[in-house]
Amino acid sequence: MAESGEGLGTVPEHERILQEIESTDTACVGPTLRSVYDDQPNAHRKFMEKLDACIRNHDKEIEKMCNFHHQGFVDAITELLKVRTDAEKLKVQVIDTNRRFQDAGKEVIVQTEDIIRCRIQQRNITTVVEKLQLCLPVLEMYSKLKEQMNAKRYYSALKTMEQLENVYFPRVSQYRFCQLMIENLPKLREDIKEISMSDLKDFLESIRKHSDKIGETAMKQAQQQKTFSVSLPKQSNVKFGKNLYINDRIPEERNEIILKHTFEEEDENEEEVLTVQDLVDFSPVYRCLHIYSVLGDEETFQNYYRKQRKKQARLVLQPQSNMHETVDGYRRYFTQIVGFFVVEDHILHVTQGLVTRAYTDELWNMALSKIIAVLRAHSSYCTDPDLVLELKNLIVIFADTLQGYGFPVNRLFDLLFEIRDQYNETLLKKWAAVFRDIFEEDNYSPIPVINEEEYKTVISKFPFQDPDLEKQSFPKKFPMSQSVPHIYIQVKEFIYASLKFSESLHRSSTEIDDMLRKSTNLLLTRTLNSCLLNLIRKPHIGLTELVQIIINTTHLEQACKYLEDFITNITNISQETVHTTRLYGLSTFKDARHAAEGEIYTKLNQKIDEFVQLADYDWTMSEPDGRASGYLMDLINFLRSIFQVFTHLPGKVAQTACMSACQHLSTSLMQMLLDSELKQISMGAIQQFNLDVIQCELFASSEPVPGFQGETLQLAFIDLRQLLDLFMVWDWSTYLADYGQPASKYLRVNPNTALTLLEKMKDTSKKNNIFAQFRKNDRDKQKLMETVMKQLRSLVNGMSQHT
């Protein structure tokens, strides 16, 4: 029952499968057949059975169908056989017609093939034309690029490359020639960079070589502008620096700096000074900057340019070792620096970012420190004031030029004050030589004038006023010697020379006045004073010359007020102004006078010593000659003549010199008596010596120099007089009795001096002892001498103990 049930279930399923097979495309039968195998195990056999049954049914139906249509088929065959004959005829006709058509169409085919071939060629030509029209602009632009490269128009070439890359190459990128062009562009860019950099290097080298010409041009134009500003003070606010505009254009045809004109030395009738734009072509810088900007490598170019310019700055700032020897050395140094910074200032203003204000300020500060150090070092070697003055003028023009370009130059003017001190030192050395020459050429005698013209000539050189001298008739003499007006003139020349340095320093009249007075004070107190002191100490300067020097210094001292008026007239600064420096001529010439006075005293004493050394006493003579010694009379005559010259000296100087001479003479005579080498002195020698002292006293009483009161001058010989009186009178009792009393007659006689002289006389008495023992008076005198000597020794010992 179970099997029969399963069999009944599968029959409809097989029928459905058969229906699908019959109705479905043969390509989709596979899934249907697979479902047969996926069914029950015996389903395949049953399906086959069912399929066989279905085939048999269809065969039966086909057979029925054929039996039904067989007669019609037969009829159709019969009809077809009838048509066969007609078909053969038709075939023959068709073949003949076809032959005729083929024969007739051969020419058409040939012409058609020609037409087709022409059409293809025409289409190809059209395509080629279209492609060429697309490629030709690219080729033309590339050819233009080559021409620009050959013409060294590199900036335009870079622009052309940009157009090729952005516009033209994308249109023809599928072609091989385009790829070759694209691959060649980076190499061309590198070539342009190298070439432009090479041009820049040539530019930098040329700029370095010709910086002095550029700087000289700028400095001359600055100097002209300064002169113009002085002549037109109302337009003094015009700045010359920014008038040096430099050509902004970028010529494509040139790739190196060209110095367009050779700078000649400026003559009085020279044409207008060339400006910097007339001298320099900056196209290599502009071109290189634009090229690197287009290539996007502007920073590399900036770094390279700044680095190279810093190296050049160090070279420019390095001076030559002998720069200090000539002004041309300094001028070349300054013009190179100015040329360097004029170029940098132009680059700053006409380019964006290549150099910045911070960069130029840093470069200038570095350069300024180096410049100041160099000038400070090299100027210290300068010994010629004219060279120092020219250096100062160069520094002023240098500073004014760069200040016009906006560079701070205050430190340069501060340096000028240091150089001013050195300039004053060189002036002082120069004027020291001038003063020495004046002193060497002076005859140290009053200036004689024989007529009014000569008198006015001297007055015009030196401010001398003396009503008494004016009243005198010609010929007459000025009290000073020829050196006085010469020195006065040279002091004024020194003031003029010192004033020259103060010009153009942008200082007030008060400061200039102060500088002039201080430098003049240095000239008076140091240079002139030193020359005077050296002159006074020279061995060949005698007493007459010293007297004249004192007179000269007196008149120079009086002339100092005229020098102050002279400075006042120059600076228009009143002497009554607060803090105005005064001239120190008073102290200067007073010191010189004191030195001259001291030298007079010294030389006078030396002269006295020379006369005293001529003394030739016979210390053992028994009787005096009855007249004074010849050396002493010569000495007194010399002193009389000298003191006659002293009448032109101030009273105190002459009196001091006279008193000093008398005291020195008295001391020399006393030392002659007490000389340790002198062993014996006779009374006759004492009497002869007394005659000489009497002449000295007569000289002192004759008032060789006016102004002494009473017997003041004679007191210089009081020690000798009392000593000689004591021995001449042999008044020992009075001396010993009154010793130590204020009213003593022999108050100025020292016991030691008396004892020394007495011992010398005792030695003389011993020589005559053989004969003296037979004379009672001599024996008594001998005993008295021994007694006196004992008492004198006791006084000397008492004095030493008391001391």
Task: Fill in the keyword field for this structure.
73% helix; single chain; Tetracycline Repressor, domain 2; 0% strand; rod-shaped; mainly alpha; two-stranded antiparallel sheet; disordered N terminus; 2 strands; 803 residues
Tally of alpha and pi helices: 27
Principal-axes shape call: rod-shaped
Q: What proportion strand?
A: under 5%
Q: What is the mean predicted local confidence, pLDDT? A: 80
Report helical residue fraction.
over 70%
**Strands of the biggest beta sheet: in what spatial order?**
1-2
Beta strand count? 2
CATH class of the domain at 424-583: Mainly Alpha
Q: Measured on Cα atoms, how large is the radius of gyration?
A: 67 Å
Task: Please report the distance between the alpha carbons of the first and last residues.
Answer: 186 Å
CATH architecture of the domain at 424-583: Orthogonal Bundle
Pfam families: EXOC6_Sec15_N (PF20651), Sec15_C (PF04091)
Protein name: Exocyst complex component
Organism: Phyllostomus discolor (pale spear-nosed bat)
Domain Exocyst complex subunit EXOC6/Sec15 C-terminal: 412-760
